[in-house]
């Protein structure tokens, strides 16, 4: 029976767009790095036909009437039971269309069949959702995804605040001991967290999501700014038919010129943008004065500051002192808007304000951060599957090997030598592959001059050049760093003075990735 191919598909279901990424790993027993593919974002919307069937969805909906969108927010916040059930139907239908499309993309791109896949779907959720709403979402998502792949695993255990915090911590390389407030400003929600970088030498942030009220988390979202612009436009209605004008106003709020203006406005000048269609009277009234724009941002900024202030209160509660965080970092579709960034710098003048320099990366912060999170825990599993070793410098028929059965991202091996040049073999094998050890012994007896891999075994020759010959043995250690599965780098240092680094050479190796 052929071994299954492991694939993880990550999904960030947003109000305005849905991002996805998939990662593939070959069957156990083979050495090959995980391959990641991040795909384009798709608009989170769908449309129904006359018999209540889904017709266009995603980008195809943009010119269709009766589009169902903004349903992620109503999934959680609607007080009307009928509206709530409808939003659950919309989200189930959209997920079915979207995830079927992803699966077809993967099968075509990779040349796999459904039967070959051992699939894991991983979804993020807004941190502001209640436990009941999160469970509801997991149930609906699980039902949908198991209709697509009956034997798949469905995981929804990461909030958007945790995922975006992972993205920001890596993007800005928060120093150890840093306390940071992270805000992922999306279309429907703002997911905020207080994070601290551990002082134990790891680069893993400890994250405390802010379980804010639904009111504050939704008032600090992009849709709040858009709704106020919509109201301003509706005041220009005059004699135009109300429904027709409402449609025109909605088109303008959804237009690219407005999105660019909303992003670029910094309070220093009026905003002028041109409609993409003929809006009649509206077309002559598209100068939004600076004071009007500031007014449009007020509710959004109030909500965002409530989130940040709650983080500051939480930090004081956890630390037991009235200290302030070092950094406020923003991401998401609304995380790079110029005016809010400027206002935050005024209000929180003693805290460093950061935002991603890449608008595109900021929009994809949750999916990137989710990938970082999953990769780290996949690495923990990986280290449990392998054994690392380095052979002694002395060449004998049966080489002495120093083993480490519990390797980590950085693993050290101690040696000593009187010679200026020391030759070692770095070895890694998989515990679950029964043939690995006999194969390894055979490889070592024959000797290797270049990287060698064979069914669960990898051997890489290392050449260490010490500073000079010593009358007494020179003590040194070889440090092995594994930043991703089956990819290793090495360095050699003086055991008594680790700041002294020796030359260490190894050949680049290709595992067929």
Beta-strand residue fraction: 25-35%
Give the total of domains: 3
Q: What's the CATH architecture name of the largest domain? A: 2-Layer Sandwich
Largest sheet: 9 strands, antiparallel
Distance between the termini: 24 Å
Specify the CATH class of the largest domain: Alpha Beta
Structural class assignment: alpha+beta
Poorly predicted segments? 281-285
Fraction of residues in helices?
Answer: 25-40%
CATH topology name of the largest domain: Nucleotidyltransferase, domain 5
- What's the CATH superfamily of the largest domain, by name? ATPase, nucleotide binding domain
Question: How large, in whole angstroms, is the Cα Rg?
Answer: 28 Å
Shape estimate = globular
InterPro entries: ATPase_NBD
Protein name: Actin-like ATPase domain-containing protein
In short:
The protein is α+β, with helices and mostly antiparallel strands and 513 residues long. 36% of the residues lie in helices and 29% in strands.
